[in-house]
Amino acid sequence: MTVSPDNAASRILEAARAEFVAKGFAGARMTAIAGAAGVNHALVHYYFGNKEKLHQAAISEIIQTVWGGIRAGLQQVPENATFEQLLAALLKGHARVISQHPEFLLFLFRNVNEGKGIPAGINEVLENFGEIPRRINAALLKEIQAGRLRPIAPEHFWLNLMGMALSGFFASQLLKNHPESPLPNIAFTETFFLERADIIADTMVRSLRPMKGDA
Length: 215
Fold this sequence. Notes:
Layout: H1 5-27, H2 30-37, H3 41-48, H4 51-74, H5 83-100, H6 103-113, H7 122-127, H8 131-145, H9 154-175, H10 190-208
């Protein structure tokens, strides 16, 4: 069967993510990736050159897919939406993509754990989605200036948001193979994570609302 170029590249990247998650960068083998993708070993080198470039391409694809999903969700949010609605849309865009590709986070976590750092060229990919954090930061500042939210540095806001958003997905991977889990009855489905997105947005906003005694 003839494999189209686009389909071949996509299958190679999918196989590469699985190989890097299972064995790490050092243990991953290009021959194993080619076999899992159902292509000739030479074709992997033809498309991606070497293992380092394939690894970089896999990370780049993940970032573009995740942020592309977030962008698509935010594009549906009107300019007059509340800050909480904006946050929920961001989180739901993220939840939809990660629910469909749970290996994304495992791959990125393994990459960080191995000390690989940020591959060359990834900053350029992130810059293409720069309007997303800028819109959220502008909306956050507007709420703070209006007195509806207490001041918080953007870096702390984003770290809090990321921690709450990512913890559920990591928990789903850690607990799914443990029958003695303290949360045995949770179905970690897309519906669950979309519901969690609303809860996180509500929790973030509530935590920043002015309290009695605030100046």
